[in-house]
Amino acid sequence: MKHLAFALVFFLSGTAHAETLKLLTEEYPPYNFSKNGVISGAAVEQAEVMMKALGTPYTLEILPWARALSLAENQPWTCLFTTGHDDDRDKRFKWVEPILVDRMVMVHKAGSGVNPANVEEAKRFTVGTQRGDFSASYLQKHDFPKIDFAADMETTVKKLLSGRIDLMMTSEKTFEMMRDQGATLESALVLEGKFYGFACNLGVPDELVKGMQAQLDKLIADGTQDRIFAKYGLRPNR
User: Where is 25: in which H helix or E strand?
Assistant: First the structure.
């Protein structure tokens, strides 16, 4: 009987551990970022509201985007956010969205004179992005010949401001936030819009994904998402 009791305790503790959802993200303010060891941001706060309502144990970790993307695709009980939903990623994950509805933009350093009229003209320039990011997939899909890859957006911004690259891709809301905070950046070219959300490993149970979606739908419907956006100086998803 003792052995049976021990085995049951071991089984239950193992199950509890397995059912802790790993939420992975990157340094990409104002949606996800760390400050003084605390992870926060407009997307992180939405995740926290959702998971608290569900009562599902979870952990939250910031990693370089390419590593986080690989872990989410290959490691059970793992979700990645804030992730652009495109055709290439569609069948690789289970989706909970939208945390964000936004357009991608190419931006340049103010006064640089780099003003492509369209995507084809933009291909003449060196464009910065992050490895594994949606924008990197866009650039590769559209055959951009000069792509500069960095580990995170902060590095890409530094390269742009120092003149090491000509353009960078980011979300329109992120650009507006950086501009409003005094960054010497200007919009050069507005691109297509996308939904962004949680990209969950295919092994995450459907019931949990449906629960997360229901909680996200709720915080959108009751205005919580808009209030969180306003806190970070972002306009609503419209």
Answer: strand 21-25
